[in-house]
Design brief:
alpha+beta, five-stranded antiparallel sheet, 21 helices, Beta-galactosidase, Chain A, domain 5, 757 residues, 32 strands
């Protein structure tokens, strides 16, 4: 069985409860359950979320991912004293998330204030084999004296989203002595959720049930002899009832039957079934590095685990939230992060999942078309933040300024339109990687032409050329500018590919072809200056600079906004992330290596890296420019965004896109993978700390494994495959070894099997 990393919580601390609750989330793409402790702590935020289950709490609010009733809580008393790590003493501590099977484990030896010592071991996982299934065990052992234990566990409906209550209670039921069931509906009545839990103690106990204050609980008392153990085994089945299907009563009975069938198998069998699926994922997708720093492999495993746990591959009507299914940050909304930072991982490992994520955009075209029309444009203007409906979910105003008492208007939904081109970029890359004609004919062409039509209508004519005015690029510290380089180039790419594929698939309309050709001929694309540097926008070079050293030292904290207003930041060369560096990453074929390096050198000192997406992209571009050590520093800094020592870095959820960026940095940076003009290119360059790197990929339906060292690369394929290696085209079938020096010295060719082009 494949050995994979475990993520360890280094010790109990009230200050890092929520960070580790996020990092240790158990999930399967359908459901995410925060890694909170079973006992309650005031600072601790519990959370259980179903992908796509959103609700709006009321006037002035937006839809948010609903925090469901909790089933993981266990209130334990030992001889009448509540178990809490804030009192008594704990003499042993182990808490870890086993990535190989998605199981969260904890072992504590606790001495109660009265002196009684008990060992508490808890385990839980969400099943990859049965998505609605959450299983847990909670075992208590009496270590040095007889004890009386009181357990209270069940379904706690008091959970809220930061105080907002989304669910109304429909029914609470008890079946026999072990099964509890609750049904809730969102206050709009648009969604219903049924939670069924089977709670069983391994020894006979005095038990009763209580239902009050939105809680349905099983309460048990058991006398435990020294040396003996008792286990509470709890299996829960969490399902959303789709409207216009079975009646709630019939649906609830079916949930009860499904739960009982699962509970009868027992925790170990359920865990084993889930682990089989996890192992298949690890074998197919795991990137393996031999590094001097063991945390590098931990970071890669952390990324793969969460990428699998956050992605709703089961339902193309949902997508990936910016905080995944690990917390309530950004209200569970979907951003451009999905297409640019997360979809490439799936595209090159599980392309069918990438297709599902693109289908989410296709199914929400109606909302995008409506937003474009409402703003006076044509085509599709996708919302900057979306949920399940496809409507714009970006809050109209930010938080209140405590000095002025005024709210600042959020400009992203009004002007950060590059998302439209980002989606088109993802569609094109999907085609390059899969050659999926069915998707392109049925959905891809529509997405490309609708987004292209938006850009054509969005352009402004100025002195005979077309420009794009009043936009915000990925650098959100620079607002309402004209001819943002990132936006203009991506818009041009969007329209050019829409016209190309419409012609290729015989679906081009004369009016669209004419307007697209005019747009491509006349759109202003700023050119690099004599030093190779591209202006981020029309006015950027004219703005003053500022020494950003102290702000860069606290990257991600947005401390610049403590000293300067947003309006002042907007008028200086201060970047949250560098648009031009991002542009050279996304369209590498448009710029020479010298131009990429020049822009990296110019913009990095002006970039604070306050975006969690920034450092990874700088690292990839640095690697492509032949600077692996600089790239490695950026890559490790990106890994620390969630895994670093800051106790509050991930309180409201992990940075989902940053996990994708960990994988991107290894694969597109050090393995040197890029896609240029539709073809796969590899130019591996490892940092000194890495002795080897193994990357499994999928391209055109062919499984490909890269085994890279500083000196050579071994390519292994399941079928014949052509690609570019260090600038030379090769064809591989089976296994072939290539020496880096031969390519760089022009010898080109020490393959161990046939296949050199």
């Amino acid at each position: 069985m494949l050995t994979v990393s475990t993520l360890i919580d280094p010790g109990f601390s009230p200050h890092s409860l929520n960070k580790y609750a996020s990092l240790l989330t158990t999930g399967n793409g359908y459901m995410g359950v925060r890694g909170t402790h079973e006992e309650d702590y005031t600072q601790q935020t519990r959370g259980m979320y179903l992908a796509g289950l959103y609700h709006c709490a009321g006037r002035g609010e937006t839809n948010e991912l609903v925090n469901l009733p909790d089933v993981t809580g266990v209130q334990l008393e030992v001889n009448g004293e509540p178990f809490t790590l804030l009192s008594g003493q704990f003499e042993h501590w182990l808490r870890e998330l086993d990535f190989s099977c998605g199981e969260l484990r904890r072992e504590v030896i606790w001495r109660a204030p009265s002196g009684a010592r008990v060992r508490i071991v808890s385990r839980r996982f969400t099943s990859m084999a049965q998505h609605p299934l959450l299983a847990m065990q909670f075992t208590v052992t009496a270590l040095d004296r007889d004890v009386t234990l009181s357990f209270s566990s069940g379904i706690d409906g008091t959970q809220t989203n930061s105080g907002r209550q989304h669910l109304d209670e429909l029914s609470l039921r008890v079946f026999g002595q072990q099964v509890l069931q609750g049904a809730w509906a969102t206050q709009s009545g648009s969604h219903e959720v049924v939670i069924t839990s089977h709670c069983q103690l391994s020894q006979p106990a005095d038990s009763c049930f209580t239902a009050k204050n939105r809680r349905l609980m099983q309460n048990s008392v058991i006398n435990l002899t020294v040396g003996d153990s008792v286990t509470l085994e709890k299996v829960s089945w969490v399902v959303q009832r789709q409207p216009d299907t079975l009646s709630l009563d019939t649906f609830s009975r079916r949930c009860l039957n499904d739960l009982q069938a699962s509970a009868a198998q027992g925790y170990e069998a359920l865990r084993a079934a889930s682990q089989v699926v996890w192992q298949q994922e690890w074998v197919k997708c795991r990137v393996v590095v031999d590094s001097r720093d063991a945390r590098d492999q931990l970071a890669l495993d952390f990324a793969h685990y969460h990428l699998a746990a956050m992605t709703p591959a089961h339902d193309e009507r949902t997508s990936i939230a910016a905080k995944a299914l690990t917390g309530e940050g950004y209200k569970g909304h979907v951003f451009w992060d999905t297409e640019v930072f997360l979809l490439p991982y799936h595209l090159l490992t599980n392309p069918e999942t990438a297709r599902s994520l693109l289908r989410y955009r296709y199914l929400n075209l109606a909302g995008a078309r409506e937003k474009a029309r409402r703003n006076g444009w044509h085509g599709a203007l996708f919302p900057w933040e979306s949920a399940q409906s496809g409507q714009e979910e970006t809050p109209e105003f930010a938080a209140i300024n405590i000095r002025t008492g005024l709210r600042q208007k959020v400009a992203s939904a009004l002007a950060e339109h590059h998302l439209v081109a980002d989606i088109a970029w993802a569609v094109v890359n999907y085609w390059y990687a899969t050659q999926d004609e069915a998707f392109m004919r049925e959905e891809g062409i529509t997405l490309l032409t609708e987004t292209a039509t938006f850009w054509i209508s969005r352009a402004t004519e100025v002195n005979g050329r077309l420009e794009i005015h009043d936009v915000i690029g990925p650098d959100e510290y620079t607002e309402h500018v004209n001819n943002n380089a990132f936006t203009n180039y991506l818009a041009w790419h969007n329209v050019e590919k829409a016209l190309h594929f419409a012609r290729q698939f015989g679906d081009v309309k004369p009016a669209f072809a004419q307007s697209a050709a005019d747009f491509l001929q006349r759109l202003w694309l700023p050119k690099p200056d004599e030093h190779g540097v591209l202006a981020q926008d029309d006015t950027f070079f004219s703005k003053p600079t500022l020494d950003l050293s102290k702000y860069k030292a606290k990257a991600g904290k947005q401390t610049i906004l403590l000293d300067y207003s947003r309006a002042e930041v907007n008028e200086m060369q201060i970047l949250k992330q560098a648009d031009v560096v991002m542009l050279t990453y996304m369209l590498p074929e448009r710029f020479s290596a010298e131009e990429c390096l020049a822009n990296l050198a110019y913009y990095e000192p002006r970039t604070i890296h306050d975006s969690s997406l920034s450092k990874a992209i700088h690292g990839i571009v640095a690697a492509r420019c032949g600077q692996p050590e600089e790239a490695y520093r950026f890559w490790q800094a990106g890994c620390e965004i969630d895994l670093g020592e800051d106790p509050h870095s991930s309180d409201d959820g992990i940075h989902a896109a940053a996990t994708g960026a960990i994988w991107l940095g290894a694969v597109q940076g050090f393995a040197g993978l890029s896609v240029c003009d539709g073809e796969l290119h590899l130019s591996p360059t490892l940092p000194e700390a890495w002795r080897s790197l193994r990357v499994p990929l999928c391209w055109h339906g062919v499984r490909l494994v890269l085994d890279i060292t500083a000196d050579d690369i071994v390519l292994t394929t399941t079928q014949a495959l052509s690609l570019w290696l260090w600038g030379r085209k090769v064809c591989i079938e089976g296994e072939a070894r290539y020496a880096r020096s031969d390519f760089l010295n022009g010898k080109f060719g020490t393959a161990t099997s046939e296949g050199i082009a």
